[in-house]
Amino acid sequence: MTTHDLATGNPATGALDYQRLIGREDLDDLEAILAVSNTDVDAVVHAVQSNPDAIFTWDYEQSREPLVKLYEKAKTSQWNASTDLDWSTDVDIEKVVLANMAQNNPDGTSFFGNVDLAGTQFAKWSEKEWIQLAIEGNNWTMSQFMHGEQGALICTARIVETVPWIDAKYYAATQVMDEARHVEVFARYLNEKMNGHYPINAHLRMLLDDIIADPRWDMTYLGMQIMVEGLALAAFGFMHQMTTEPLLKKLLRYVMSDEARHVAFGVLSLKEYYQQLTDVEIRERQEFAFEAAVRMRDRFLQQEVWDRMGVNVKEALQLVLQDEGRPMFQALLFSKIVPNCKKLGLLDAGSGWLREKFTELGVIQFEDWVDTGEEYAQLDAVAADRAAVSA
How many helices (H) and strands (E) does the chain have? Predict the structure, then answer.
């Protein structure tokens, strides 16, 4: 990372901003990050207070051509989770993680990279314990995907209610179906192939609560379509590259087809709307995007996995954060978010406030990568597979 580094805990230069936005003066305060935990893990229902306006429009003309094009693409790229995926595929999760470890860690280094583990609780770990850690990490990651997709389901239903344009209501309705399918496939995979799931991570839940509680329709777009879905699209891409398991590989490929449209929907809708906002209103959106980025970064620490493994969580994370390769891998997860924020004009508005914050997060280097509003058609695996069958 650049100005800040979780491994060193260097104090933040914008302490006042950080205290106001994320409740701590130091962006990388490990104690404060770990203090946020989910104490409601056994609850089945979680309610969030919200009072947005439901907006009707009597203008039925589809005047926004990019959204019309996206809507037509969505209608022809729907897929059925029950019939388009082979659920009879046998998944031996231990074999899967061993294959992943062999493929993605060929030099035999540990989960902590090349960090010296001498004198730590991990120095005497057996192969069985490392395998179990990989299994738990896989389960945790898939579980957070599932919870995030339910957040997207709720948020997109909200967008149908609150967005003032008929073109956007049409498209958002297709995304509601997409998100329901995504929750379905991740829940089914976790229950049938991985023996259950983790509760939602506290940092992710805080972010989803903030997005849902805000009554402004464009904040739902920004928080979910740009930030959460943007990071998910990058994360799905990494997992798709890493995994050797065929059912999961196809599942992720199809989910990514949908997710690319979802992020493009946010970019295409907000670009027009943000041109009408005042400087003060734009600053509010910049701050919201930064807060969302920090919440998502904080959840990468996977503290629930270490807790389930019965190890000292703080010691484990201090070792994780010494891995020199981790900052770059973590930053890459923002490779979809940063160019999309630039496309929306958020990076450089207000004397470049968000540019400065993304620089401090160590992710600004992705600003000129392709934005998702331009690439969604290239990621349509569903259409590609159907074309190949009919050829």
Answer: 18, 0
Asked whether the beta carbons of 32 and 23 are under 8 A apart, the reply is yes
Q: Give the burial string for 369-391 (b: 16+ CB within 10 Å, else e).
A: eebbbebbeebbbbeebeeeeee
Distance from C-alpha of 39 to C-alpha of 295, rounded to nearest angstrom: 17
Task: Choose the weakest-confidence range: 70-79, 213-222, 316-325.
Answer: 316-325
DSSP-derived secondary structure for 232-276: HHHHHHHHHHH---HHHHHHHHHHHHHHHHHHHHHHHHHHHHHTT
66-390: CATH class: mainly alpha
Q: Exposed, middle or buried by CB within 10 Å (0-12, 13-18, 19+), for 61?
A: exposed
User: What are the sequence ranges of the domains in the chain?
Assistant: 66-390
Give the pLDDT band (50/70/90) at residue 179.
Answer: very high
SS3 state of residue 110: strand
pTM of the prediction?
0.90
What pLDDT shows up at residue 208?
96
| Contacts for 22 with CB less than 8 Å, ≥ 6 apart | 291, 294, 295
What six digits make up the tokens of 18?
Answer: 């950080």
Residue 378 is classified by DSSP as G
